[in-house]
Amino acid sequence: MSNDDNAFEWKTLDRDLNRFSRLEAASMYASRPLVGVGLSMIFVALAALAAALLTGGNQPGDLVVIVAAAFGAYMALNIGANDVANNMGPAVGANALSMVGAIAIAAIAETAGALLAGGDVVSTISKGIIDPASLASSQTFIWAMMAALLSAAIWVNLATWIGAPVSTTHSVVGGVMGAGVAAAGLGAVDWSTMGSIALSWVISPLLGGIIAAGMLAFIKWRILYVEDKIAAARTWVPVLIGVMSAAFGAYLAMKGLKHLIKLSLADACLIGAFAGILLGGLSVPLIRAQSEGLENRNRSLKVMFRLPLVISAALLSFAHGANDVANAVGPLAAVVYAQKTAATAGQVEIPLWVMVIGAVGISLGLAVFGPKLIGMVGSQITKLNPMRAYCVALAAALTVIVASALGLPVSSTHIAVGGVFGVGFYREWYVERRARKLQQERPRTTLATEERKRRKLVRRSHFMTIIAAWVITVPAAALLSALCFWALSVFGA
Q: What are the structural domain ranges in the chain?
């Protein structure tokens, strides 16, 4: 056999092996969702088993608690799959964190936030959406809470499947509203509270977008477009780190420490100011050391923003775990309380085992299903780098503080995604402005107006999908909850 024949046979074998490799990779990719579903089912079953062991499982009402624990576990998985992406997406999209690193940091921070500073007390009527006195009995209240929990979980699951980041808080609110209407009519709902929540649909993303765009404009003005970029960065990056530290100090004080000690808004702002001055001062030598030997160009500046961005993402996850774990376990805790006491009003202490279900479920949902939404928020809406992503993270903290000072209800999901949109639309405006200026100076060397309009920096298809999902979240969750309440009432009776 000649050398040419041997070479031909080896090439044929290589092609066949490549085909097998591609087939194996495709099979693994196709089976990955099944692995996630399997792990999720195991976790839900373990949550139900834990509830059975801890309640005894031999009393007539224990079965209700066991089923509610399964619903709570399912909701926690969906919160991890959808909500946490808003905290980690910008850092991953800016290449400041790998996907694995982001998931590991978020899982630790979310669990710590939920267990260390999570909601020790939760209202059984979910922030006053429905009047418990309008419900006929404690059993009706229990069916309403279970329907709200299941419907919110189903809606967030659907939103994750289509790739839309939605507010889990609004999903729970819609679920409670729908169950309340199904149980006691329209009069059971506090419509003024619902009006303020609807107002937050507009306020949250607008505030987040405006603050993020404003921060990016400041960075461009004071750092990116000056003659000596490195010197400007040495001056202003510590200031920005101080602002970030102050914002997160106040944010964590309001969202986390308030569960441990009583704090006013002024107290939280004082804590934030102290943290900002301290950490801003400590960052001066660090930024100076990082900037040594860097070239005077924009690419060099990204190095200085990576560590603050990673820290801000971890702090956002901690605050999210402390604040939003109640979305998963609040209705479950209300069911446990109502089943034990036959009461439907007042404040309910969340048992530790219920908190553990929420914390572990959020982390598992993030690890198994989170990459899809992390990729959406981080890279598919608009292109992010460490500076742009830093603006989004800072906007999230500042917006919550501003909204709290004004007494406005806001959604952390809407703020973060609104910040990404704000950065993207600001970049579009800025690029268009520069292009028009260049066209006036050199009309023959610039893009045509039609071509500039075609080159959008924010993907409009994702923009419309996300906005539509935000608008229909409360009514969709309410409708699902009404159906779930009817089914539970019929089959539970």
A: 38-492
